[in-house]
Fold this protein.
Amino acid sequence: MVYLVENPEFKLKTESRQYLGNIDPDAQIPFSVEAEVEAGRGVYTLQLRVDYTDEYGGVYSDEYSLEVEVGEPPKPQQQPMEVMLYRLLPIIAASIFMVVVGYLIIRYVKHARGTGS
């Protein structure tokens, strides 16, 4: 089991721990643990604890210090003008179509009233 130790600057989540299963000696296994940042900008030290059992049933626990740098949250990227235009194009086309159809209906009604009297 690999997990982050409680830290006041970081809120632990269920993803803050991960079970890795049986691992061969000297094997490299990728894993990830997550936490929410509750601290401001700066460099913080997190403790990563690894609990494991060897092939003889011995239970061990190791702890590692990790330095984490917290920066500004990323700013949302502004969409390019082409993307915005592409999304607005159907709305503009539909609006123009409705105006033209409305104009033609009004013209037809006026013409029908004029010839019907």
Summary: The mean pLDDT is 87. Residues 81-116 form the longest helix (36 residues). The chain has two domains: 2-70, 76-117. The beta strands are 2-4, 10-12, 17-18, 35-37, 42-53, 59-70.
